[in-house]
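Standup notes
- DV: blocked on the single-chain target, sequence here:
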Amino acid sequence: MNQVERKAHLRAKRKKRIRGRLEGTTDRPRLSIYRSAKHMYAQVIDDMTGKTLVSIGSFSMDKRATRDVCAELGKSLAAKCKEKSIGKIAFDKNGFAYHGRVKAFADGAREAGLDF
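- DV (later): unblocked, structure below
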């Protein structure tokens, strides 16, 4: 197993462990993020009904996902959530470390009023 496969395998194990204890409800949906090499994607999911309530990605801003762009993205997602009267969420970092772009996204969402 090479280094890339090993890192992906370890992230998949972390993701499975997190999802075992984290579930989005109607009152507190799950905010799931995905971080690729160039972009950042996020969606707010109600796991009880299996529906995505709000979604956003850095590709819509036509910019590479830097920390600043991720903070703006978090604020935009929080604004969309407020429109749909979603104030509390469960944060699913999807096996990624709470560092860098992930932390900037979460801080931006918190600044705009989302409660984790």
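- Follow-up: Residues 3-111 form a domain with the Nucleotidyltransferase; domain 5 fold (CATH 3.30.420.100).
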